[in-house]
Amino acid sequence: MERTRIYEDLSPFLRRTKGTVIAVGIFFLVLLFSLWKVQILDHEKYWKLAESNRIRESVLAAPRGLILDRQGVILADNAASFKASIIRENCQNHALSLPKISQLLGIEEETLRLRMAKYESWPLFMPIVVRDNLSLEEVSRIEARKLEFPELIVEVDPRRFYPFGSLAAHVLGYLQELTPEELKSEKFRRKNLGDLVGRTGVERQYESLLEGANGRLAEVVDSQGRPRQVLARVEPQPGQTLVLNLDFDLQKKATELLEGREGAIIVLDPKRGELLALASFPTFDPNKFITRFTPEEWMALVNRPDHPLENRAIRGLYAPGSIFKLALALGGLDSGVVTEQTAFFCGGTVQLYGRPFSCWFAGGHGVLNLTEAIRQSCNIYFYQTGRRMGIERIAEYAQELGLGAVTGVDIDGEKPGVIPSPAWSQKVRKTPWFAGETISVSIGQGPVVVTPLQVAVFTALIANRGARVTPRILRSGGSIPLSDGEPLTQSTSRIRPQDFEVVIKGMWKSVNEEGTGRAAKVEGFHVCGKTGSTQIVSRERAEKMKKEIKTHSWFTGFAPRDNPQVVVTVLVEYGGMGGATAAPLAKELFELFRKKYD
Amino acid sequence: MIDRRLFENIDWFLLGLLLFNSLVGVAFIYSSSHYLPGNYYLRQLAWIAVGLITLFLFLTVDYKILLAYSYYAYGLVILVLFGMLFLARGIAGAKSWIRLSSFQAQPSEVAKIVLILVLAKLFSRDKGMLLSTRDMLTSLALVGVPFFLVACQPDLGTAICFLPLLLAAWVLAGLKRKALIWITIFLCLAGGASWRFYLKEYQKRRVTSVVFPGRDPRGAGYQTLQSRIALGSGGFLGKGYKKGTQSQLRFLPARHTDFIFSVIGEELGFVGAAVVLLLCFSLLRRVFSSVEKSRDRPGIYIIFLVGAMLTFQTFVNIAMVVGVFPIIGIPLPLLSYGGSSLLANYIGVALVLNVKMRRFANI
Question: Cα–Cα 20 to 30 A to A255, which of A18, A562, B218, B293?
């Protein structure tokens, strides 16, 4: 089709464009010629330059920030560690050298091969770490055969070292090597092959403060891998030192007390929420994780039936048992279904909803009021209170008091637990709520489960007469200032202070007036506490099985009664009665605290 | 809205070349960065998708309308650049030798497109066949202001990208040959003066290192030398895709951005580099030859200026990689990794297609 120009003659522009295209063509010919010169004529020269004059870039690992307890005891340190890496491009004959290297390093050839295969697709110049924690003897053995194996290099790294091994392992957490997949992700874009990263605890939570920034070293090396000239050196920036709220002595004591049991202990400052100790047992040695190549040991830990990696203090879910009676008492007082003087009769057993419910004390407590009921931990009293309140109100008050929800502590992985309600039953169990269950829940049995840390924070709330705190592991570090001074009060419970006084009176009696918590009594320190023993199976079933099944053993309390300074929560799995097992452990911690701080 | 007949008039060959070049880029972005965190090749693919959508969006609006609003866009860009002059203070990006394509590129990429439209509007007002002094001075001011603002950031490399637009507009408007010679002389003098008064020490070293890359292998000559070693060691047929073992380029962070061409040259050798060169040239030729399909003067200016923009960047980048031009951090259009530059080039090509497909009637 003939093109028609409606408006004007544009041919001068077309002419100028043609000229330009010719000029562009000439430009490109110049480029092509330059390429020819560099790639064909000077190929030999550049090929030699590329071969003889290698540049190696290595990472100068930044030491991780130290982790200290509140008094400056180093809980996580750094130690120098030698590691051996293979740079594949320096190697002439892999098949020949690999068996020899595996012999030299003392690792199985197959392990070495697997390790190399894992990073197969990575560029040949990248060093692959094949062995770490070399002894000085091994280092000198490798260095002596440097000419034979130019691909094998030894580097020094600062390596995480936990001087006290398993102490506070669950709080500190552990480090693990990044996987090839993680290395490609955005989150770890600044990390390198073989870098370790915090997987749990403080190491994970405050990774960004602890990690520091790696430095870089670029140097010219000859074909033997010997450095000839430093091109660039960027010094590593060490990570920041973190100070934790943990008190080394209390933490140590708590760990010792749990030795040989399964359970958790928490020591908490109720005013500021500072966690003075947080122990979970059984435990593990985080130093073991740092060696990069013992997957068997790790799998063994993961698969152990008593789950040593699990932080029971924040992830263990347990029925609160009689500890829950404190929530019932507070809820009952506030909602007006009971007063301090309200009395119920305990005859050892009671018929409710056509079913017998018994007290732990088969002989019965007789007539008792609220504070006496807390002192004696009478089940019947709280069955009656719970029946009057109804499940909806029980759930409402339990949640108000911080149970069944994460506490917001600054370590990852906290579990919320369950405070059951009819709505929860419909949603999760797909069954309606049974009236009898309300009675079980009234003494902290049935579907209700909480973590030990929740119980500790709940106790702090009672000690504060209603002021809620968020438990904190970190004291200071980075831009976070020292958390001294003002209490970290979040919000205040709507329950009246005088109701707390009634419950606290009961807790004081429990410890100091021959109540269930008497084993926690510290002369002159006015400990207020509550025991709990949670049945894992119902008593009837236990009798049927003709087997003595021990209950989980709880104690939680604070001291002194006025101006509280410390909360101690103890849970021992299968520990028997709370007053017999958990309370004496708590006593030792109260005593130690008093010796140190009072 | 877009008419079906307009859609039929899209230059599918040009669009195909655009896409093909971009995909070649992705292949080598993958080759040079697949072991790095960041998934650059996937991101580039995402940018290509965004670029294509933007391209089709730009096709739906008649370029006449774009021209009508161009002065407002220009005002906005000047405002942003002016603001950046104060905000960008203290950011060491432009100063560091290692960060070649700093994020400051983004507003200036937009500025290029807006300048193309503004210049096309300015010059098409005139009905004459030769460049008038008035137009010359007006256009000098129009380009001078953003040039000055970006050069003060200081990001001379990006600012220089505006100048070929001005020169191209003049050439197309009918710059006399004598004037062209005068301009060349002026540019030489300006270069000498800026060497004396404006250029920073590191910039001077970049220039000297083109002539003597071996003099300072640790500093400015470093990248030039490493780039040449990579290209040169590639030889005739190259070392093979993903087998570019040339260690020297490994710690240039710009190897998948500004130095993508040296990766191609190392892995595919002279043959591959020449093919890519040919691909780039074909695209430029196709753009320039589109002027014949424009129905009016503004259309011709738009096409010509887009061609000039792409030509300048392609030429400077490859010249930089080959080592015959100072390293000023200009990415290779369509092939280098980088969202804002890719998007700007896609919009540029969209403008060309826009003019071309509306060549016949007043739809």
Answer: A562
- Looking at chain B from residue 299 to 338, which residues have their Cβ under 8 Å from any Cβ of chain A? 300, 304, 307-308, 311, 315, 318-319, 322-324
Instruction: Looking at the complex, report in whole angstroms how far the Cα of residue B29 sits from the nearest Cα belonging to chain A.
Output: 14
A55-244 matches A248-283+317-597 in fold = no
pLDDT at residue A377 greater than cutoff 50: yes
Nearest in space to B347 (alpha carbons), one of B31, B37, B23, B59: B59
CA pair distance B352, B307, nearest whole angstrom: 9
Name the token pair of A421: 């309600």
Considering only alpha carbons, which residue of chain B is nearest residue A89? B245
Contacts of B315 in chain A (CB under 8 A): 24, 27-28, 31
Looking at residue A472, what DSSP letter applies?
B
Is residue A5 scored above 90 in pLDDT? no
Residue A125, chain B, CB below 8 Å: the answer is yes
Residues 8-37 of B with CB under 8 A from A: 34-37
The partner residue sitting opposite B277, judged by closest CB among A32, A47, A186, is: A32
Highest CATH level, class, for A248-283+317-597: alpha beta
CA distance B201 to A116: 45
In angstroms, what CA-CA distances link A61 with A160, A194, A487, B229? 12, 11, 39, 29
Confidence of residue A489 (pLDDT cuts 50, 70, 90): low
pLDDT along chain B (363 residues), means of 10: 73 94 94 77 92 93 92 91 68 37 61 93 83 88 90 76 91 84 83 71 66 54 78 87 63 71 91 95 94 90 95 93 83 90 94 89 51
Domain ranges, ordered by start, for chain A: 55-244, 248-283+317-597
From the list B7, B119, B160, B113, the residue with the least C-alpha distance to B343 is B113
Domain definitions of chain B by residue range: 20-89+102-357
Mark yes or no for CB contact A184/B322 under 8 Å.
no
What integer pLDDT is reported at residue B104 of this predicted model?
A: 45
The CATH fold assigned to A55-244 is Penicillin-binding protein 2a (Domain 2) (3.90.1310)
Interface residue A293 vs chain B (CB under 8 A)? no
Mark yes or no for CB contact A38/B231 under 8 Å. yes
Mutation target for A interface from B210, B222, B223, B248: give the one with most A CBs within 10 A.
Answer: B248
Active site residues of A: 322
With bands split at pLDDT 50, 70 and 90, how would you rate the model's confidence at A473? very high
* pLDDT at A66 (0 to 100): 92
If you search the block for the tokens 């506070």, which residue do you land on? A168
Cross-chain Cβ contact B37/A185 below 8 Å: yes
Q: ipTM of this model?
A: 0.88
Specify the 3-state DSSP secondary structure of A58. strand
* Option in A40, A123, A191 nearest B250 (CB): A123
Interface of B with A in 173-192 (CB under 8 A): 174
Residue scoring higher pLDDT (A371 or A598) = A371
The pTM of this model reads 0.66
Task: State the DSSP string of A311-328.
Answer: -HHHH--B--GGGHHHHH
